[in-house]
Amino acid sequence: MKRTSLEIYSLAVCFISVIALVISLGTSLFSIIKIAYPEFTIDQWQYEQFQTNDNFWQNSPKHFPQELKGESAPKPSEEELTKMRKEGYKVVLKGEQRNGFQTLVYSIIFLLISALVFFWHWRLFKKNALHEIK
Question: 76 FRET partner, CA 20 to 30 A, in 43, 52, 100, 102?
Fold first, then answer.
């Protein structure tokens, strides 16, 4: 049976829509992991930066304004440094979760649009295929 150009077009769009659906499902799944377990998805450098006080002190000049100006900042006590490190880590995790929520919303929107495009073109194909049979 020979296919019409309308059928080929609608099937091609369906194929591309399926690819878009698979990509958006994968992105949605990763976003859910970001939301549920942000410690797993944060950047390796950020993770290592917050694991010890020494790493935090050496890699976090943004927490110490004098360091940004090129001046040497006095090292805080271990208790104060630990407190700053833990608070900074909470902020990073919260940001990772927020990013996960944003990406999940984008992915769901993309998924819905892809699904609508798929079903509309699938109906177009079926309608044209049934019309040819009659």
Answer: 43
Helices (H) and strands (E) in the chain, counts: 6, 0
Is residue 125 within 8 A of residue 7, CB to CB? The reply is yes
Please determine, for residue 68, whether its predicted confidence score (pLDDT) is greater than 60.
no
Residue 119, both tokens: 């079903």
Task: Give Dmax (Cα) for the chain.
Answer: 86
Distance of alpha carbon 115 from alpha carbon 61, whole angstroms: 47
pTM for the full predicted model: 0.78
54 vs 82: CA distance, rounded Å: 10
Domain residue ranges in the chain? 5-133
